[in-house]
Predict the structure.
Amino acid sequence: MATRLGLDVRGFDAPLGAEITGLDLRKPLDRETVAEILAAWYRHQVLVFPDQDLSPQQMVDFTGQFGEPGKPRMPSRTVRDILPNLPPEVMIVSNIRVDGKPMGLPHDGEMWFHSDMCYVEVPHTATLLYAVELPSWGGNTLFADMYAAYDSLPASLRNRLEDCRALHIHDYKRTDRPSLDVDLDKVGNFAHPVFITHPETGRKALYVNRLMTARIEGLDPAESDGLLEELFTASEDRSLVYEHVWKPGDLVMWDNRCITHARTDFPENERRLLRRTTIVGTQAPR
Ligand SMILES: [Fe+2]
């Protein structure tokens, strides 16, 4: 039976983000609570639900109350071999090796700012991460507010790029720019508008990131590189960032349409394991 237990939303002393307490995410939510969580999510962009105790399937069930849970694009045989009961909607985000092999894409150390799945036509709108094992320091997630990044741009730059599109490439790296030398038939890539309008809030957001955005279409390479550097610098300004220091049992849900995220470094000889789900999008960013 759906429960309603006095939801408490507390905005962080940061440019974005809020903590929600008073909910046990293992239990189904009633319709009003789902609506309240969504309203808080649109307002704060990142929601943290601390002290949860979720099995992989419970995480999928929670996710499914807000939309259709996505399935990882590259299900790893290694993960499925080790965790045969892992629901297909759950991706493991970890640096742990089993018999020398990573559990899916290796998630080691620092990772630059990016927006999940910006390299496909219809990216997933939300990403949820649930912390299981954490290192003694680092591996924090930085969340940057892309509404504020857009608002911070000089009017001349906004006008210059108003109708431009940028090409995003999934050239899996963690701290390097995507290469334009890759065979685009072999890797995920898509060109989206540089500025997008969030379909729920109506607010404009910057939609480029240092890790995956390769070029602005239609410009010569030097001009594209120069303008992108200006946009990246604006989008990574610390005044736009909330840094989440994880605790086991944290469930964090963010909005890929108005947030980029990055990971800080952590010790390579310590274990870090989180589970990830997503919510599929229904339209291309525009
Ligand atoms: Fe990510």
About this structure: The CA atoms of residues 128 and 253 lie 4 Å apart. The pocket of fe (ii) ion is lined by residues 114, 116, 261 (CB under 6 Å). The chain has six helices and 18 strands. Residues 8-144+245-279 form a domain with the Double-stranded beta-helix fold (CATH 3.60.130.10).
